[in-house]
Amino acid sequence: MSTRRSVNGRVLVAGVGYGEIGRNTGRTEGSLTTEACLAAVEDAGLTMADVDGLLSYPDRISSPFEGPSLLYMQRSLGLKELNYWQASSTTGPGQFAAVIDGVYAIMAGAADVVLCYRGHLRQSGRSYVAGGAAASVALDDQAFRAPYGAPAGAPRFALWAQRYMHQFGVTEEQLGAVVLTCRTNAQRNPRAVWYGHPLTMDDYFASDYVASPLRVLDCDYPIDGAVAVVLTRSDRRTDLRRRPVAIESVGHATGGGYDWDQWDDMAITSSAYAGRHLWSGTDLEPVDVDVAEVYDGFSTLALAWLEDLEFCGRGEAGLFVQEGNAAAGGKLPICTDGGQLGGGRLHGFGKLAEATLQLRGECGPRQVPGATVAVACSGGGTNSSVILLTSGA
Amino acid sequence: VSEAAWSGPIPVSDPETEPFWTGVARHEIVLQRCLSCSTWIHRPLSHCPNCWSAPLAYEQVDGFAHVYTFSKVYREFVPGVPPPYVVALVELDAQPGIRLLTNIVNCDFDDVEIGLEVDPVFRDVADGVSLLYYAPRRSPEKTL
Predict the structure, then answer these.
(1) pTM over 0.90
(2) Is ipTM > 0.90 here?
(3) Using CA atoms, how far apart are residues A326 and B119, in angstroms rounded to an integer?
(4) Mutate which of B73, B90, B144 to test chain A, going by most A C-beta atoms within 10 A?
(5) How far is B138 from chain A (nearest CA, A)?
(6) Dihedral sign, CA of B121, B31, B90, A271?
(7) β-strand B117-126 against A245-251: which pairing, if any?
(8) Whether the bond into A93 is cis, omega within 30 of 0
(9) Strands A383-390 and B99-103, how do they pair?
């Protein structure tokens, strides 16, 4: 990585915004995402006229995951002239692909103020197989997956989880500890979908398996929601309303094989490579991190991130969480907003927003006291990316 | 074994994968192999990812394998593939590192574990189309 040009605070998170979050808002994904984008630009103290970059994860047409198209959003936000615009595909470094694209666009001078968003509906009717319920054929890679009932999603991550738990002796109770940590945190965040609904370990073990070893409660809760983030150059600092948060490093490298069913070592995921890449771009170290918004689309991914960012040793994350180190007030609080297991699926963008709010000290009852360094993670499996943030204090 | 008609997705081949799927239809396992460096390749590609040679050859293998990882699935993820079922990645004994995504059949779910030795089992799902499943070794049934 000797030729790598690190971020080192040259790009700021200027503002963050949420759209309505709920089990069934009855609204379009474009409506939720527009709301989030307006809130983020307002939070930054900028106007839509300042925005010259627009980045989406992913575009509606690139993926079975819903989300407003880039063109809908450009029109909805009245963005007449953009210097840089792009929709990430789902084949790339995780949900933060759009944010990392924005970071590099700003570093390259391609844009000054970049708006990045993720918005989606609950996706209850989503199908991984082209043609959905009417499908009678499986094409390309899905020819090898769909007939076996493992197109993507929980069965895919369950195969990873089983191998990981087998290799390191991770227990189901330790997965439960991740779920309970997140659910407890959700009780301090009114925005969380499970706010007001605490959980016990008995509840966890009463939860049905979706795809063993993953239970219903090991899978993040699908919701309607949207989050937007505004990025800008560090020399725009004085134009901003809030004390901005600086991006210190990004990690998005991968490795391990061609594709998930041919991944070299399924006891680790691509977050191992992203983690190494992150630390190669900074003088900060894991011990400097005050709050870790690890990705928890599945409970096992949160454990992988704790190990892959070197907060604990390989195979030790289950015990780390079980002993309370990742809880509020612990050695390294994770998923402080409830995460996706407690708060609902915001596909990583919620991680970046919460990390930003933590470093601005705006998290009220769930604030990690004195937090100055945070990580926000997205993805797992073959697609991961991570962002290291500082309060710039 | 009497089975309800298959209503799940039918795998469609392309020029690279066609030898694999026509092999499965004959109840054989045919894998891609590089003529230059002998690397086994799955799923099929156009060029060898080890030495970038082309074209690639296809060779029949015995398919004996062991379970690398697995999951018991209790929800429907694909129309026509009703739960419960066991999805697994099995690693071929004679081609280390080559893994096939499959279902483990003809078994008690509780007997499936990492390392379990398994043999190929074929299920004819449409005219000229079969799926490659696996079953615990010594299973008397070689078709489903």
Answers:
(1) yes
(2) yes
(3) 43
(4) B73
(5) 22
(6) negative
(7) unpaired
(8) no
(9) unpaired
